[in-house]
Structures are given as C-alpha cells and as structure tokens.
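Quick one:
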Amino acid sequence: MVSKLSLQNSVIFTGRINDPNILSKYYYDSFSSVSYGQAGLAVLQSMANGVPFITHEKAISGGEIHNINHERNGILVNNQNQLEEWMIFFINNPKIVKSIGENAYNFYSNNCTIENMAKNFNRVFKDVKKL
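Output:
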C-alpha cells in the first residue's frame, strides 16, 4: 500500500526497537502508529507519546484497544480501504492529527495510571470470584 500510494518518504517500517530514546524520536516525527490486526501494549505506548493509534476495530488485543475512542484519541477501522483513507487524511491534516494526539496523551496521562489499572484488575477479579 505504501508503494501504491507513493508514501515511501512518509511511512517508515522500523522493525523492533527496544531503546526508549530511539523510539521516542520516531514518535516525535510520527502522524500515527498503525497496526491493522493487533492492538496490544503499543496502543498505550503510542498514547503516552501523544501519537494516535490506528487499528482494526476487531484487532487482536489484550484489552488495550478499549482505550481507543474513535476519532477522539485514535482511529478504529473495519476494512483496509478505511485504513488507507485515514492514513491519507492524517498526512493531509496535521492540525487534526495534533489534536487527536493531544487527546491520546491526555487520556493516557489521566486514565492509564498504575492506580487505575490496579482498580480495574481488582474489579475484574471480584467479578470472576462471583461466578
């Protein structure tokens, strides 16, 4: 798709990066993070860096996908055409992307704390215990 749309200068496939300092540099220059079929911890990592996350609404996830509020702090698509449209939209609308990225960062900062995660785990364990 990147070749088809001539986006080689705008889209980078980095492979695995373990160094957070190197990773932050990529996030700083990014319009979005995209993982069409999987939405794991990269969702939170992207939000923590103020970068919107784009994924399929039924992507494989350990629950992290539920942090994405469509068009507010990230994007959920239901087919590859929508993915293509959103990627093009993001490249052509940096002010909107910046706003969505700020929303992502604020959501992460306010909701993805250790305390909130512990409360949710505790709630789930209590619910399971009732079964």
